[in-house]
Task: structure prediction
Amino acid sequence: MTVPQALDQILVHLITSTKYCTPSITPALRPRLYEYMAGTLERMGCPSMQIAGTTDHIHVLFLLGPALAASHVIGEIKKSSAKWMKTQGVNTFAWQSGHGIFSIGEPQLDRILNYLQSQEATHKKVSFQDEVRWLLKHQKVAYDERYVWD
Result:
C-alpha cells in the first residue's frame, strides 16, 4: 500500500509598508534588508522569488512552505527584519500592523516579477496608497479605507 504524496506550490505576494509610511528604507539599506529577509524566508522553508520596494514599503514574492501558515511567516519576516533594521541604526523602525497578501498563479508569475522589478519607476508616477488600492480592486478584496493605513 502506498501513501499519497502531498503536493503543493503556493506563490504568495506580500505587500507591507513602514509604520505611517515613514521613508526609512534607504537605498543603501535596501539590498541588505532584502538579503536579510530572503535568508529568513529560506530558513523557514519559504524560498523568496523576488523582494522589491521603495523607501516606505516592500513587496515580497515567495513560495509558502507546505507546513506553514502565511500569517506565521509574515509575522516572523516583519518581526525579525524590524529588529535587523534597528541594528543598522534605524532605531525607530517599525512595519505597519497590517499587510496585503495575495495568491499568485503560475501563469501570472512573469508579469508579477516584472511588476516588482519596476517598483522604482512605478512610484515615480503612482503613490503607495494608489498602488494598494489598485491591487485590492484587481484582486477583488473588499476593504474599508479607514482601516487600511497606519
Remarks:
- The longest strand covers residues 10-17.
- Residues 10-141 form a domain with the Alpha-Beta Plaits fold (CATH 3.30.70.1290).
- The radius of gyration is 16 Å.
